[in-house]
Design a protein that fits this description.
This protein is mainly α and about 180 residues long. The chain is built from 10 helices and no strands. The model has no long low-confidence stretch (mean pLDDT about 90).
């Protein structure tokens, strides 16, 4: 798991530079391993690095305010996934990782919001579980005043609805209901 350790160091250094926490990324990796105890290194790297674009490039709040679809804008999601894949694949290639391996990591990150393959679905579901466990409350507090209750509630509902595995949905169901209540206050 050489490249996983290198990726962790890279992500941690970027987080330190920006004064950001990586709890969500660590927790996503944890849930990938819970949902798939045989998760390979590529899937584990994708779990730890799936939101690297937000960490490195940030989020344009003004764009989210102006866009009617907010966080659920297909172009916004596509760009987030593609830029994340680009950042991490460039890093892994620089570290000498095999091109096929790097391509696998990039593909997983490129589809972490929508899934579509068994491994991408595990990553997507782990991302949702981690979102509810580590990000949801702060997300509500931060974004309701910035973009409005409706867009935040839409994002939270989408994060729950996109879950593929019944086991994952069962894990977050009560957290989802609590988040919706908090949005509506």
């Amino acid at each position: 798991m050489k490249y996983l350790e290198l990726t962790k160091q890279f992500i941690k250094s970027k987080a330190d530079e920006k004064g950001k926490k990586i709890d969500h990324l660590q927790n996503t990796l944890h849930w990938v391993k819970q949902l798939d105890p045989q998760a390979d290194e590529a899937l584990q790297i994708a779990a730890f690095a799936h939101d690297v674009s937000r960490l490195v490039l940030g989020v344009d709040i003004s764009e989210l305010k102006e866009n009617k679809k907010g966080f659920l804008d297909v172009e916004h999601m596509r760009e987030h996934q593609e830029k994340g894949a680009e950042i991490i694949t460039k890093y892994l290639l620089e570290k000498g990782a095999d091109k096929e391996f790097v391509s696998d990591v990039g593909q997983l990150i490129s589809f972490h919001e929508v899934g579509g393959t068994p491994r991408a679905d595990i990553l997507k579901d782990a991302d949702s579980i981690s979102f509810f466990e580590t990000n949801a409350e702060d997300f509500i507090k931060k974004f309701v005043p910035l973009v409005g209750k409706e867009k935040v509630e839409d994002k939270i509902t989408w994060m729950f609805a996109r879950i593929s595995l019944d086991k994952a949905r069962d894990i977050v169901r009560d957290m989802y209901k609590e988040c919706i209540k908090k949005c509506r206050k």
